[in-house]
Amino acid sequence: MAQRYVVIDLETTGNSPKKGDRIIQFAAVVIENDKIVDEYSTYLQPEQSISIFIEELTGINNDTVKDAPLFEEVAERICALLEGACFVAHNVLFDLSFLKEELERCGYEPFYGSTIDTVELAKILKPTADGYKLNQLAKEENLEHPRPHQADSDAYVTALLLLQLKKKLYSLPVMTLKKLYKLSYSLKSEIAELIDELLTAKLSKAERHNPAIETFRGLAFKKVQPAIANSEKIPEFPFSEKEKVDRMKKAFPDFEARKGQLAMMDTVYHSFVQEQHSIIEAGTGIGKSLGYLLPAAYFAKQQDTPVVISTYTLQLQEQLLSTEVPKLKEILPFSIHVVLLKGRANYLSLAKFERALRGKEDNYETALTKMQILVWLTETETGEKDELHLTSGGELFWNRIKSDGFTSPDLQIPWKSKDFYEKAKLVASKADIIVTNHAFLMADIMSSNRIIPEGYLVLDEAHHIEQAASKYLGKRLNYISVKTMLNRLGTSDQKQLLRKLEKILSNKGITPERTSSFIDGKLNDFMYEFEQLFQLLSSEANKSGKSSGPHRIPLKVKDVKEWQGISFLVERLIDNLSDIKKTLFDRICMLKNEELTKNELFYMNDVELLISGMNEIIQSLAEFFIHPSDQSIYWIEFTKSVPQHGITLSSQPVSGNKILWDSCFVHQKSVIMTSATLSVKDTFSFFIEQLGMQNIPVHTYNFPSPFKYEENVRVLVASDIPEVNTISADDYAIAVARHIIAAAQAANGRMMVLFTSHDMLRTTYQKVKATGFLQEFTLFAQGLTGGSKMRLLRNFQNFDKAVLFGTTSLWEGVDIPGEDLSCLVIVRLPFSPPDDPIIQAKCSLYSREGRNPFYAYSLPEAILRFRQGFGRLIRTSKDRGVLLVLDRRIMTSSYGSEFRQAIPPVEWLEVNEDNMTYRIEEWI
């Protein structure tokens, strides 16, 4: 007999039944034979007052439940509903614990049957979802959810979701279901019973093989059709404005010609043909992406040579592939092959995953992630990590199964034809346009085994290229990664790699000269002194007086008397780790000519990876503490609330421009550098200097935004906000919070607040929340409310009354058109912190050259970032918005006019808090 499911949802007065919170609404939906056969819901009298917060959340108030029954009056019916059923809920532990408390309170037996958590089930079956809240999943599955946070609506939608997930589960290949079944016993709810039920049903039917799925070595994959080579004739590039507009209108009947975009197309095409370098500033609304994609497509096809497009942010990369490239394909009169290429670690190693599936030491997070990947393999064409929504434990597991260059050939060869990274390289070699990111571009350029072809390159978000290059040319060493790596090795009495390696040697009858106890001793010595080193670094960092957020301070070992013995400590660390590395390497060499099983080869591969990692640690320790370069900056990144565990040592060249152009781009035939913000005071000299291009022939172009900012934007400057240096940081945050609350209420949400400091963001966000004035708003805070930047932005757009607090990366690369963003708040003019080690080093360099570092570096950098922030507000010609600046320096300082002149002409108004509210309401 098929399982009977009862889907439950509760609304309650709070989160803790142990603290006396009670149920105010109960709802159940009964499913039999995959059909909803019964529903039951009722309000309940909680015998306590319902808070304003719960009323706002659920719409249920004290009047709603005034005449509702007590729980004891409906308990018997609830028990009858649940008898013999499987208990289903979205976050089942919450609903089950509440129900258990209430049933026991009323003298009834609690529910002891099977449970299914639809959150857990959705994580497995929808491994690429943006999130697993009920309203997010409902939207993704096109399920109507008219009244979120009302139990009857939530229960009904959860029931529909369960049916959808069951269909998805049943559609999976038998091979995948069998593997999911074995792993499902590590889960928290009884999903194993559901899989068993569907697997039995599937095996009882002789179903035809799904032609979209292929199998290999026990795994099922989505079958990817190879691209068919096309020898079509490519027409001439459309030089006339009419030709381009006609071409655009074939794809977009309502297309409005933008002269800047059409001129940019010609500029890019001519630059490629004439093999010249060009800098192009393309204002917001120009259509920059198609401005370079269309000429790149014609040129790549005509010359039979790929064009590489590199972006800084994943946001833009995703936008190119999901939005701009499909538009391009509609416009072109020929087919175009565009591929995305990322760094190797972004791809799944199938050889490693195959081995990992055999492991039996699964904790909950590992088992869940394995199940996610098994399902994902039936859907993905790329094998890229960014497609997956992994937990923090899943991220750790990914590090064990990601692609790298150390996998043993004996293990890799069977998978070579299926390997995702190898496929990505092969596809890229046949592509017309290759999309990548600045970080991977830098890594590839510096590599001896290049994948990305030289020749024709477009650098979008080009203002970040110097930063990306400098970061790549530097080093990083952190406490957690070193400890994690050496814990993976373990000592000979732990069930880790060293013990497994010793067992292999013993099985082969090999007795190394140095015993495992020698490695144990060296490892213990290293761990003890490594701990000492980072305690010393943590102590020094905490003397800086910085607050609890993430911070950077210079690493100046030679300048600090208390650290005089540090070089001896580091030398001992290097000696100990070198001895461990050599001893492990000698053991690997002894096993090279032995016949090894697959598992033994995998362990050998893992040890070789560790040896490589140890070598990097040795080199980094030597550079940071013994032989630092005069050409590099060294600093400590730390979080005060997390002592040595939060320490990272970092370095980069003082100035990337000295080596950037000659190292990275000198062999390119044509480099197009483009962004909406490259010029300062109508000149590109600051950008040119940053890239070390002072002596390189380069053409510069500026295509201003077509938007009518004077009609669509109002800029308000708070006249009653105090200067930050005249009051305490806490009082300043209170003043900022007060203005943010007033602005959010006036704008009815749809507001983004940009900070220059993580500390100020955190403090202000907490003060805004503490007031309770924005309880009806959904508040998102970068670095505090979880999720990646892109997920944060998507979630922000999903709520009507939302406020997004952002810093650093949200100043740019964010595209929120229409009414989703109507008010932008800039808390401080975006100067980099003067005590930041990188800024200090760069300013010192300018001073040594006899130049004023503020006017030569700090001010131009801040102006560019201000322009980037302003660009978030208006994304289409129909957008309207308010920019609120909470920094009076923009009106009062000698340099304030340079910020005001850096953006298009708009009306500037100085307003107090009351007038600000009126102006925002009036405009929006």
Task: State the end-to-end distance.
Answer: 59 Å
Return the structural class: alpha/beta
Spatial strand sequence of the major β-sheet = 10-11-9-12-17-8-18
Q: Tell me the name of the CATH homologous superfamily of one domain.
A: P-loop containing nucleotide triphosphate hydrolases
Q: Main beta sheet: strand number and arrangement?
A: 7 strands, parallel
| Rg calculated over all Cα atoms | 30 Å
CATH architecture of one domain: 3-Layer(aba) Sandwich
Discrete helix count: 35
Mean pLDDT figure:
88
The proportion of strand residues reads 5-15%
In short:
By secondary structure, the chain is an alpha/beta fold.
List its salient traits.
Nucleotidyltransferase, domain 5; seven-stranded parallel beta sheet; about 45% helix; single chain; about 900 residues; alpha/beta; Rossmann fold
Structure in words:
GO terms for molecular function: 3'-5' exonuclease activity; ATP binding; DNA binding; DNA helicase activity; DNA-directed DNA polymerase activity; hydrolase activity, acting on acid anhydrides, in phosphorus-containing anhydrides. It comes from Peribacillus psychrosaccharolyticus. 3'-5' exonuclease. The structure is a single chain. The mean pLDDT is 88. Strand 4 (86-89), helix 3 (92-105) and strand 5 form a beta-alpha-beta unit. A seven-stranded parallel beta sheet has the order 10-11-9-12-17-8-18, with helices on both faces. The protein has a seven-stranded parallel beta sheet with strand order 21-22-20-23-24-19-25, sandwiched between helices. It is globular and about 85 Å long. The longest helix has 28 residues, at 598-625. Among the domains are: 5-207, Ribonuclease H-like superfamily/Ribonuclease H (Nucleotidyltransferase, domain 5); 479-653, no CATH class; 709-923, Rossmann fold, CATH 3.40.50. The chain is built from 35 helices and 25 strands. Helix 23 packs antiparallel against helix 24 (598-625). The two termini are 59 Å apart. It is an alpha/beta fold and 924 residues long. It is 47% helix and 14% strand.
